[in-house]
Amino acid sequence: MARPFQCFALLRSVHWRAPTRVVLCLFGGITLALTHHVLSLHLHGMAVTDLSLTQPWVIRVSSALAYLVKVLLVVSAGAAYFQCVWQEARKTPTSIGHFDSMFGALDNVFEFSDLRFWLRRPVLTLTATIVWYVSLSPLLSPSSSRDNDLPPSPTPAHTSISVYCCAMQRGIHDLLH
C-alpha cells in the first residue's frame, strides 16, 4: 500500500540545486554577453567627448561584463560537468585512476593524457573542453588583436574606445563564424 506522502519523499530525493545552478548561470552568462555586445555596438564609432562616462569607466564596465560572463559560463559548465561525472560513475564501472582523472580534468589538463578513456566518454570530454576553452578565453583579448583592419577615422576623435569596440565586434564576429 502506498503511503500518502511518498511523492514528497521522492521530491526531496531529487537534487534540483545543481540543474538550477547550471541553467541560471548559463542564462545569466548569455544575458551579460548580449549586454556586453549591445554596449559595444552602442559605443562603436562614438567620440570620447560624446560619452556621458569617461573612457576608463567605459573600459572598466566592459571588462567587468566580460569577466562576469566568463565566470558564469565556467560555473555553469563546471556544474554540468560534475553532473555528467556522477552519471558516468553510476552507469559504468570505473577504475580509481580514471575516476581521479574525471575529477581532476578541470584543474589539470594532463588528466586528458589517456585519450582512449576520454574518447569513449564524449559528453564528459566536450563539457570539460568547454570549461577549459571559456577559462582560457581572456588570453584572446581584444587588445591582442591586430588593428590594421580598422577603417581610418575621418576625424581626430578616433580614440582607443572606438578601436576597443571595433576589436570587440570583430572578436565576437570571429567567435560566431
Overview of this protein structure:
The protein is mostly helical. The chain has one domain. It is built from seven helices and no strands. The protein has helices at 6-13, 17-43, 55-91, 96-104, 115-119, 122-136, 160-176. Helix 2 runs antiparallel to helix 3 (55-91), helix 2 (17-43) packs across helix 7 (160-176) and helix 3 (55-91) packs antiparallel against helix 6 (122-136). The termini are far apart. Mean pLDDT is 76; it is low at 144-148 and 155-168.
Low-confidence stretches: 144-148, 155-168
Oligomeric description of these chains: single chain
How would you state the average pLDDT, rounded?
A: 76
Structural class: mainly alpha
Secondary structure: helix percent: 55-70%
Largest sheet: none
End-to-end separation = 59 Å
Number of helical segments with 4 or more residues: 7
Please indicate the percent range of residues in DSSP E strands (runs of 2 or more).
Answer: under 5%
Using DSSP, what is the number of strands? 0
Q: H/E series, N to C?
A: HHHHHHH
Radius of gyration: 22 Å
Q: What form results from the Cα inertia axes?
A: elongated
How many structurally independent domains? 1
